[in-house]
Design a protein that fits this description.
This protein is an alpha/beta fold and 642 residues long. The protein contains 14 helices and 35 strands.
């Protein structure tokens, strides 16, 4: 049965508490952040005390905080995981984003669970299963097209979350082991070495070089700006921005961009509403192309596209300026209509196809004087700008204010006056004061004074949308009286809002127990501990292989499974050729080879599901595990839950 989704959630990344607070200030309805351990971004840890501080700020606006606990766990870590979950619950975190099904077999508090993208949700059957075992929200695979999302929405009752912006993992999430194969560092353990961003040489089945030193596994960045309405219609309710490793300007810019786009939709379609309170104003115009990106693609949302790869560079080249028209001793002249600024960052590709960056000291019309003249630059070189200094300066300052609209009504009591303040969610508070009633000599001036003093909400999270004076006549009410009424009413409203906020509850699993869509799991299921094995056995799975990280002797296996296809990107797709005869005969899905140093990866093509498999060998991991131990991620006295 198709479910109604009235609440739309903008979900932003938080490298740390400060970034999360700014994401909320810039309009996010929820943020996701890593804890002190067990997150898929090991280089972005945070203490529970810092997360609690973020939670307190988010809950002011009835926004939510999700903690990414999305690695797979070794048996020796399960006790530490259990303790951390209880500490996060005590810190009033709203939900956990998880990959390891062993967590569902543990003694947990009633905290809401979200299925991470690493659970590899590509089919209706997988989505239905996760919906039925107690997940409130599931993060769909980035590779899904809009018609498939619609089918999943029709078959489930949980919220659907979808990545709308940021970096794209070339592999199906949770199905990438190339980092482990190449360096011993496991992506499923939070230590991805980003082998997909390296340069490779590509050979065809006959050893002919199709490309040398190209970033063949590097994707452009995701941008679903044009598809938001279609995604809403398909059933998506949570719109996720990637970027827990990204800098603060990126978080501000991307969050503001999608907040404005979603607000425009909300304004036109009253059947939807945002999932938090408050409206944000900005000191800048959001322009996502000005902060880190590898150019834009909507990936597979509207079917397979011809140009989704960022093969030239995984770095941020930025906006096109124009071509070089003159190179002087200490300047470069560029034919451009873009206004340049002192302090800009510009770049170009040299003869080796490497991206070379320069900082602009000064600008004179179309001439830039860089901090250092590059050796290899000539006329007709195409120049880019990857740092707009003026734009970045705006983002480095306080760049957003978020306010909750309230209506204020002053009325008379028997021995004085009262003020009722009601917010946009219908929550209200009333303050009263005893005061002598004196008729005003100047009616207009008296009313203006009352309105002005009621509206002085600058240091609070509120802004007056409406002010009503329900008075029998115009009274002279001293400014001090109105100010006291306002302060007391606002303090009460803050308390009312805090008490009214309710964390989402964990969903119970269906009865009878759901049966997993398969009864035989390979290493691709990432089963790394006994609790996960218990979970799958309970749900009907009979044969369960150990995770890739468990180092069983598997021989050559897919170390990456991806929808990205290098045969397709080189015009060699059998489906596209449809039997066309060329010089070499009918196009078939013959293997290719990717080469990086001494490492050779065979590419095999499974044309029925339209997938590319990167084949490789297992290697021993770098990470070592200690004995089971109690772990205190929440120092005593650092935070006391309310």
């Amino acid at each position: 049965m198709l479910k109604t989704r009235r609440h739309l959630e903008l979900l932003a990344p938080a490298k740390n508490a400060e970034f999360g607070i700014e994401a909320i200030n810039h309009g996010a309805d929820a943020v996701y952040i890593g804890g002190p351990a067990f997150g898929a971004r090991a280089k972005a840890p945070n203490t529970v005390a810092d997360i609690a501080r973020l939670v307190k700020h988010a809950h002011h606006y009835h926004a939510e905080v999700f903690v990414a606990l999305n690695t797979i766990f070794h048996d020796n870590e399960l006790e530490g995981v259990r303790q951390l979950v209880h500490q996060l619950y005590d810190a009033e975190v709203d939900a956990l984003i998880v990959q390891d099904m062993g967590l569902l077999e543990m003694d947990l508090p009633p905290i809401q669970l979200h299925a991470s993208t690493q659970t590899d949700i590509r089919t209706v059957e997988k989505a239905q299963f996760l919906d039925q075992v107690g997940f409130s929200q599931i993060v769909l695979a980035r590779e899904l097209d809009i018609p498939t999302i619609k089918k999943i929405a029709a078959a489930t009752t949980c919220n659907l979350e979808y990545f709308i912006h940021g970096a794209l993992c070339v592999a199906f999430s949770g199905q990438c082991f190339i980092s482990h194969a190449h360096t011993g560092r496991s992506a499923n353990r939070g230590e991805c070495s980003q082998e997909c961003r390296l340069p490779y040489t590509l050979e065809d089945q006959k050893g002919r070089i199709l490309g040398k030193d190209k970033h063949f596994l590097s994707m452009k960045d995701n941008d679903q700006s044009a598809n938001l309405r279609a995604l809403i219609d398909a059933g998506v309710s949570s719109f996720k921005i990637e970027g827990r490793y990204k800098d603060l300007p990126y978080v501000k810019n991307a969050t503001a961009h999608y907040r404005q786009l979603l607000d425009e939709i909300l304004d036109h379609y009253p059947e939807y509403q945002k999932s938090s309170a408050g409206n944000t104003t900005y000191t800048f115009t959001p322009q996502p192309e000005k902060t880190f990106n590898r150019s834009a693609t909507d990936y597979f949302a509207n079917g397979r596209q011809a140009d989704i790869g960022a093969f030239d560079t995984p770095k941020f080249s930025g906006e096109v300026l124009g071509k070089v028209t003159k190179v002087g001793k200490d300047f470069i002249e560029i034919s451009t209509d873009v206004e340049l600024h002192n302090g800009d960052g510009v770049c170009f590709f040299d003869v080796h196809k490497e991206l070379v960056g320069l900082r602009v000291n000064t600008v004179e019309d179309k001439r830039i004087f860089p901090n250092e003249m590059p050796v290899d630059i000539r006329n007709n070189t195409l120049m880019y700008r990857n740092r707009d200094h003026a734009f970045m300066r705006l983002l480095e300052k306080d760049s957003a204010v978020r306010k909750i609209e309230v209506s204020m009504t002053v009325y008379e009591t028997r021995d004085g006056f009262a003020l009722t303040v009601t917010d946009a969610q219908g929550l209200s508070a009333t303050a009263q004061i005893t005061a002598e009633k004196q008729a005003a000599n100047d009616t207009a001036k008296a009313e203006t004074s009352v309105r002005e003093n009621l509206g002085k909400l600058g240091n609070t999270d509120f802004i007056a949308k409406e002010i009503h004076l329900e008075l029998a006549q115009a009274w002279f009410i001293p400014a001090s009286t109105i100010n006291n009424l306002r302060r007391e009413a606002i303090e009460q409203l803050i308390q009312t809002r805090a008490l009214s906020y309710q964390r989402p509850l964990r969903r119970p699993a269906n009865e009878p127990l759901a049966i997993y869509p398969e009864d035989n799991l390979t290493y691709l299921a990432n089963v790394y501990n006994q609790q996960a094995r218990n979970f799958y056995h309970k749900h009907g799975v009979k044969i369960i292989a150990k995770a890739y990280e468990a180092n069983e002797e598997l021989g050559e296996v897919p170390v990456m499974i991806t929808k990205h296809c290098l045969r397709f990107s080189h015009g060699l797709c059998p489906k596209e050729a449809k039997g066309v005869i060329g010089v070499q005969g009918t196009v078939t899905a013959e293997p290719m080879t990717l080469i990086s140093g001494n490492d050779r990866y065979t590419l095999k093509f499974d044309c029925k599901p339209c997938e590319m498999h990167v084949m490789g060998q297992i290697r021993k991991p770098i990470l070592k595990l200690g004995p089971p131990q109690a772990i205190n991620f929440f120092p005593k006295g650092a935070y006391t839950p309310s």
